[in-house]
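Sorry to interrupt, but I need a hand with the structure work. Could you add the entry underneath, on a fresh line?
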Amino acid sequence: MNTKLPIILNNITKSITFVRQLNCWTAGITKKHRKVYERAYPVHLVFPNGSTINIQYHEPRKMIKLPLDLSKLSDAEREALLEKRKPKTKIVIEEDIDDDYDENRYVNYNRR
């Protein structure tokens, strides 16, 4: 009895087939589920010194920027770069308005 069960299950699974309806609307509803793209895409590679080259990359991107090596920078350059990365503080300017308006100067203009 136990030897027939795998044979029966094998026959049942062979008889069940799943049909997926692929049409033009499928790509509009879902995304392409792939980890590696089939072709290579032209991408700009930016080196830390600012020079660029064109490479073929496996994902469609516009630009790839390589990071700077902080150990190769001088102390002044390193401090300037780290200062740029810090968030900027907003300067609040409070204006002190001197109100020296005298309405009595303009009283004679309103009389008619």
Observations:
- The helical segments are 4-15, 26-29, 75-85, 107-110.
- The mean pLDDT is 79.
- The two ends are 120 Å apart (CA to CA).
- The chain has one domain: 4-95.
